[in-house]
Amino acid sequence: MRNMLSDKAVALKPSGIRKFFDIVSEMDDAISLGVGEPDFDTPWHIRDEGIYSLEKGRTFYTSNAGLKELKEEICHYTKRKQGVTYDPAHEVLVTVGGSEAIDIGMRAVVNPGDEVLIPQPSFVSYEPCAIMAGAVPVIIELKAENEFRLTAQELESAITDKTKMLVLPFPNNPTGAIMEREDLEAIAEVIRKHDILVMSDEIYAELTYKEKHVSIIEIEGMRERTILINGFSKAFAMTGWRLGYACGPREIIEQMVKLHQFAIMCAPTTSQYAAVEALRNGEDDVQEMRTAYNQRRRYLMNAFREMKLECFEPFGAFYVFPCIKEFGMTSEEFANRFLTEEKVAVVPGTAFGDCGEGYLRISYAYSLDNLKLAIGKLADFVQRLRSESK
Amino acid sequence: MREELLAIVERNSRIDLKELAVILGVEEIDVVNELAALEAEGIICGYHTMIDWEKTSIEKVSALIEVRVTPQRGQGFDNIAERIYKYPEVTSVYLISGGYDLLVTLEGKSLKEISGFVSDKLSTLESVLSTATHFILKKYKDHGTILAKKYEDTREKVTP
To answer: Given B8, B24, B158, which is nearest A32 (Cβ)?
Structure first.
């Protein structure tokens, strides 16, 4: 039979997470620290609005770009948080999770051969989406000594005359790194100089534990060249509702709306009604969850200090990214042994790019009690490895 | 730190002080001092344990009682409230806006004991005009804690 498959699709590497997931899911009694979603339930008043919309029979398509009310609330929210104004009629698109926005955002701007800069370690989708859009992904390897922030030098040296866009994944999954205002100002200068676009994935914007999150769109000259991606999954604990959005210049959003219209039609209606409630009345819930994450983050950092495990202090998302190079194993070997011997699942850093080698992603989207149990096992494991190597 | 500390100990007063210091990002001595201050100021008024008596073999009955009273000149409701809260079987007394004045919660060994208290002691107080007793049949949620169901993590074990 002739080759029926797309060479591009076939050539995509399967997600490193998937492989690990298959092992873990066969173990019934494994404790997992491998989850990339909040442990909180969606706040009840938000769920209630979703239910109410169903009761009222609001079960039809919305307009392609999303419910008018929701687009307006998104603009209010962005104005409130970032001080930046978008036009709800032309500059916002409601998507099926932030993931869809990444995909169609790439496809809306990329021409064959264009280079898209992807800092890693980072979320698993950027590279495959860039490839499927016809771009050449160019990886920038972020460094622990910079706390996994993107520096102007790193950016500058990755740019060529083919560079079209930079993906800016902060607050970062898996490292927990953030970019503060001065970091953003430094890279913005390079971006303006070379006239490139930015795809800023700020899905974890609400989850920072230092100063309030700063977005690249707040920096001079950036709003007009940035696709801002955000969503409801992380901030409002709404992963299963599959709802995100993109804000950006009208010319880009128009193209994205077309792609979205032909592929998806519109984001789920029930979720959109729930999301309106989230943006109108969800601030306190977010604050409460942020406080809980921060407590767990402090607990973990202290536990690492006590077991003398090297880890830079992350101030964003709900991940820590400890270094395990001292044990002379690859991340995957460490994660596999830890899982077999202690029945605790963590994700090898390499699932988020080759430069994640030597690191683990540990999620703190778990109750403190759960974390204590798992971290106790990590301490035992680390001690055993150290005594073995003596 | 005060607000965050209160929110934590309200849910778990038995939390280890060292752990409390770690998750609040302060020194242990600061936590000790702050707790002492909160106790001295009467902001922390006690440390109780939530018990689901249903799961024990001990019989307990609780009731909510709506009480309408005549307020007294110069004293308002305070005097009569005090008369009521002094009974050890009374677990709480609230002054309420709306259709009645005081909401009294009671705990007793049996329905009979509670109805005896209401008819003999509560209704016979001079300023009590009327009472309405509601027995609690089942507690689903108490002090923010759901009693009826156990938390279950239904998430996929590893996700990006």
So the answer is: B158
